[in-house]
From TrEMBL, chain A:
GO terms for cellular component: inner kinetochore; nucleus. The keyword Nucleus applies. Belongs to the CENP-I/CTF3 family. GO terms for biological process: CENP-A containing chromatin assembly; mitotic sister chromatid segregation. InterPro entries: CENP-I (IPR012485). Its main location: nucleus. This is Centromere protein I. It holds the Pfam family CENP-I. It comes from Paralvinella palmiformis. It is found in: Chromosome, Centromere; Nucleus. Keywords: Centromere, Chromosome, Nucleus.
From TrEMBL, chain B:
It comes from Paralvinella palmiformis. It is found in: Chromosome, Centromere; Nucleus. This is Centromere protein L. Belongs to the CENP-L/IML3 family. One of its GO terms (cellular component) is chromosome, centromeric region. InterPro entries: CENP-L (IPR025204). Keywords: Centromere, Chromosome, Nucleus. Residues 39-59 are annotated as: Disordered. Its main location: nucleus. It comes from the Eukaryota.
Length: 660, 347
């Protein structure tokens, strides 16, 4: 403090021969009850502070010091109050100052008038505090000041500014309701004081950090923030009046009392559901109920609510503060993950939103929700969902491309694990319902909570077209991003899921990876790509073998057709294998064998100029650029210093690496 | 977004969920249904028979209470287990009165005398619907009854929940126990509106939000309402919001003689055609904007349209409307209902 004060002394303006630093220094050094009358030094110091405060405001550290001076009872009330009124910040008020004020207030050394003045000061400079968290931590302490008659009103105002959702407790509400009978609303006092603070802040706005004196949120936004997006569990008369339960079950239990799964099980037969079903988005117990309650109107209530709120938060009137919308999406994600099912209204919302989406807002959440999409005819899926995503994919960074590919992989996984089965059961159930036309078939189809009419189409067709679509994007993506290893990693993830369609998900469908991906892996510099692709080939082989041995007679006509189609791909698959083993094991890359290779990179004339042995060997196991590192570490223990051997092995590969 | 022409005459036989829901969003035509509800409608005969107990007297059909007042428009999701029965309505009145009292006891520190209501009255507004298939409109009045003396209760707040001219598709989708009343007109102190809203949300598991009219919706309104016959000579008004970068100017208001507007509209739209096309609406508004450009060299179409006025009604983008003529109530509320239902995803 003192060193800083001295520094400022050199350039500070001098009024009455006292600098601000000296003034502050004098006030802090004063012993208890100094002489007031005729104390020139004291008067000078006060005048100086007055002057500086009105002109430029006080620096942050001086405010902290002066708060202590004003509150520690050294000076009489009049001087203290003058000091507090001059605590006009130049830029920000450190929360340290406010904490000191409150701690002095707790000691009862300052008189209640000074205490009241301090609270009023905190209210005025509330928006200029550097951090609110420290002050908020003292919420409980502040609450006790309500007992003080003089300060009550100001403390109420301060609490009003500070209160967050988690602060609202029953005992506090009770106390405030009691207080409210005595008090009226807090009027805007201290107008002149506020004007002084604002005038200084306006002057300072050019320099220093920009502070929003007018408030952090407009009142309308603040009101909206104070209300939860998702309603809490509560009951009203509507459910009690028209309860579907027979009286013999006895007293029904309001859902707000169900706090654990145990309680839920004990009271399952006499639950009184909450009045707002949307509470299920946040309440796990209610989600359990939703899963097994037979009443179809329950999911409808949730759907209608979601419809309205999603529209409001994202399409019609998007809030300036994205945290509300994000919270809603997060809850929706947890909810759908728990149900393992997408909410149709949420799908419809996404379709709408994707067409106006900028591709940045809430990207992870939006993509996560898309992964839960149901099976639809490919035309529909493509028009409404995949087309906007394709545009995003083509014009975004590699990181976003990877996010999208991860999403595509998850969507594929979801389609083949959950949605395919659900679709088949739904179809069967729907046919049964249409044929019988009466209620002999269960009203709910017990595979989905949100029942939707399904269209008749071929689900395998959708999946194979979807894979085709992703394949196209992968090819273009590899070109644009020049075989980025990160992108390759995501691509291989996709093909790992795809390779196991038959064995893992018992589909009669095997779709091969794109040749461009296969050969990018073969010629890549990354050993992971190469080895993972080899692993994927192994999986394909297992799948082909297993599919060959399937009892044909047990299959439906459609599945038989798909089986034949898939088995036809063995020929191409064998070519891939041939190329891999020719290059890696047999040192015969780019060779025309009796089984023709798929790729032909060099024309005959080009090959004439090159040592044929060299290029044929350059992708062999021990010369492959991706594997050189492994090869070296393998040779090291055996080489006994024979470096020539290693170097000659490098020859071919190093040329390739350089080109890359 | 891809749009498929929505023709009201085509009856969908096999409902394909994706198509019915997702392709018909932004309409390119609207029917010019200026006919008010007459009680006789071919498609609702069977329903009407069921409701034959409801008498419709002429005075019920005049909506003088609705006109010449500024209403705030809210949109509601379908109400769960709402009932039109008299006993139920009485019950709601009682419950809402109780709710208001509870809110005052807990509530805010300041309540001025004007905003205090201690009595709620639910009633049915007969005839505020376009077909018998639509649920009847409900009026909620919050009244202030003096505690001492038998002076008459004073209405401090009015809300009207209605559904005027929803398409058959939409009506079909909302099944029992849900009731579709998507439009709420409200007038009165904000505080009471908030109390009522929270009560509705809790009681009928619905969600209430203030409606917003997009510039396109406002264009539809101005075109269709200019086209309707009206005796009033109020000018047609288009108000554009000036971007905040321009200092000293908030709005640009364009006033045109309504007769001239009607002539212009009749040139664009043929009177025999009972449907209004989006192309016509766009042409109409563009013509007015071009006229403005010709005189002032200001490209007004670059600014968002925020308010429109016609001889029969005024609408603002933040969801306020004012109706001038009682005979056009159905037409106006019909269009507003349509616009509001379009914002919904599911319906």
């Amino acid at each position: 403090m003192t060193s800083k004060a001295k520094k400022r002394k050199s350039d500070g303006a001098v009024v009455n021969d006292v600098t601000l630093a000296e003034a502050v220094q004098y006030l802090t050094s004063c012993k208890s009850r100094p002489k007031i009358q005729g104390n020139v030094e004291l008067q000078n110091s006060l005048n100086k502070i007055d002057c500086v405060a009105t002109e430029t405001g006080l620096p942050a550290e001086d405010i902290t010091t002066l708060v202590s001076v004003a509150a520690n009872g050294t000076f009489p009330e009049a001087i203290c109050s003058r000091l507090i009124r001059n605590l006009i910040p130049a830029t920000v008020v450190p929360s340290e100052a406010v904490i000191r004020a409150i701690s002095w207030m707790s000691t009862n050394i300052p008189s209640s008038k000074i205490q009241g003045l301090l609270v009023r000061w905190i209210i005025l400079i509330y928006n200029m505090l550097d951090t609110l968290n420290d002050l908020h931590a003292l919420y409980g302490v502040l609450f006790y000041f309500l007992e003080n008659e003089v300060m009550c009103r100001s403390v109420c105002h301060l609490l009003y500014l500070l209160t967050r959702k988690e602060d609202v407790k029953l005992f506090r509400v009770r106390l405030l309701v009691r207080l409210q009978k005595r008090l009226v609303f807090f009027p805007q006092r201290d107008r002149v004081w506020l004007a002084r603070i604002k005038a200084v802040a306006d002057r300072q706005i050019v320099e220093g950090p920009v502070i929003d004196v007018t408030g952090r949120y407009t009142s309308e936004q603040a009101k909206r923030l104070k209300r939860d997006v998702i309603p809490s569990v509560q009951s009203t008369a509507v459910t009690t009046l028209s309860s579907d339960l027979p009286k013999s079950f006895g007293q029904s239990v309001p859902f707000s009392e169900i706090t654990s799964f145990q309680l839920l099980l004990q009271n399952f037969d006499r639950l009184e559901l909450p009045c707002q079903m949307a509470a299920a988005l946040k309440n796990r117990n209610l989600q359990h109920v939703l899963l097994c309650y037979p009443d179809p109107s329950i999911p409808m209530r949730l759907s209608y609510w979601l419809d309205h709120v999603l529209c409001e938060e994202f399409l019609v009137n998007p809030s300036k503060d994205p945290s509300r919308a994000e919270e809603l999406l997060q809850n929706l994600i947890t909810f759908t993950e728990f149900l393992k099912e997408s909410v149709p209204v949420c799908e419809n919302f996404l379709v709408k939103y994707l067409h106006v989406w900028n591709g940045v807002d809430f990207r992870p959440s939006v993509l996560k929700l898309i992964t839960r999409f149901r099976l639809h005819p490919f035309k529909v899926l493509s028009d409404l969902v995949l087309e906007p995503l394709r545009k995003l994919f083509l014009c975004s960074s590699v990181y976003c491309k990877c996010q999208l590919l991860i999403m595509f992989t998850q969507l594929l996984y979801n389609l083949v694990t959950v949605e395919l089965l659900r679709y088949r059961i739904c179809c069967k159930w729907q046919q049964g319902k249409n044929n019988l036309e009466i209620s002999s078939v269960d009203d709910s189809n017990n595979v989905c909570v949100f029942t939707e009419e399904v269209e008749e189409f071929n689900p395998e067709e959708t999946i194979s077209q979807y894979v085709e679509y992703v394949g196209n994007l992968i090819e273009v993506g590899l070109l644009i991003e020049q075989d980025s290893p990160l992108l390759m990693h995501c691509i291989l993830n996709f093909y790992e899921v795809l390779s196991d369609l038959h064995l893992e998900h018992s589909m009669m469908l095997i779709i091969l990876p794109r040749p461009s991906v296969v050969y990018t892996s073969l010629f890549s510099n990354s050993a992971t790509s190469l080895s993972r692709m080899c692993h994927i080939f192994c999986r394909y082989r297992e799948n082909f073998l297993s599919m060959k041995n399937v009892e044909v007679t047990s299959l439906s006509a459609c599945d038989q057709q798909y089986r034949i189609m898939s088995l036809k791909r063995i020929k191409q698959f064998n070519m891939f294998i041939m190329d891999y083993s020719n290059s890696l094991w047999r040192r015969l890359a780019f060779c025309d064998t009796e089984k023709r290779t798929i790729f032909q990179m060099l024309s005959e004339t080009d090959l004439e100029n090159v040592d044929s042995n060299l290029y044929r060997q350059c992708f062999s196991l021990y010369r492959h650029p991706a594997l050189v590192g492994y090869f070296v570490s393998y040779l090291k223990p055996h080489s006994n210093g024979e470096r020539r051997l290693i170097l000659s092995s490098f020859k071919a590969s190093s040329g390739y690496v350089k080109q890359n | 977004m891809s749009v498929k022409l929505k023709s009201p005459s085509v009856q969908r036989t096999s409902r394909t969920p994706w198509r019915s829901k997702r392709f018909t969003r932004t309409p390119i035509t609207r029917s010019l249904g200026s006919v008010s509800y007459t009680g006789v409608s071919t498609r609702s005969r069977s329903v009407r028979n069921r409701r034959s107990s409801i008498e419709r007297t002429p005075e019920e059909k005049s909506f003088n209470g609705l006109v010449l007042k500024t209403w705030h428009v809210y949109r509601l999701s379908p109400l769960y287990k709402f009932s039109h029965e008299t006993s139920a309505l009485r019950n709601y009145s009682r419950m809402l009165s109780g709710h208001l009292e509870a809110e005052y006891n807990v509530g805010m520190a300041v309540i001025t005398e004007n905003e205090k209501a201690n009595m709620a009255v639910f009633s049915i507004v007969r005839g505020l619907q376009k077909s018998g298939r639509e649920p009847e409109a409900i009026q909620i009045e919050l009244k202030q009854k003096p505690i001492r003396g038998d002076a008459e209760a004073r209405t401090v707040y009015t809300a009207i929940l209605c559904c005027v001219g929803a398409s058959d598709d939409v009506l079909e989708k909302v099944k029992q126990p849900f009731v579709l009343l998507p439009l709420m007109l409200s007038k009165g102190p904000v505080m009471l509106n908030r109390y009522l809203t929270s009560w509705l949300e809790c009681q009928f598991d619905c969600s209430v939000h203030a409606a917003h009219f997009s510039p396109l919706s406002l264009s539809w309104m101005v075109a269709i309402w200019v086209g309707s016959e009206a005796e009033s000579t109020k000018p047609v008004m288009l108000k554009y919001k000036v971007p905040s970068e321009v200092e000293g100017l908030d709005h640009i208001t364009l006033n045109i003689n309504s007769k001239d507007c009607k002539v212009l509209w009749d040139c664009i739209h043929s009177t025999e055609d009972k449907t209004c096309h989006k192309k016509e609406v766009v042409t109409f508004v563009q013509a007015l904007e071009a006229h403005f450009y010709h005189h002032f060299q200001i490209n007004i179409s670059a600014m968002p349209l925020c308010m429109i006025g016609t001889p029969i009604a005024v609408a603002e983008s933040d969801g306020k409307i004012k109706i001038f003529t009682p005979e056009h109530v159905h037409q106006i509320l019909g269009l507003v209902t349509e616009v509001i239902l379009e914002t919904s995803i599911e319906l």
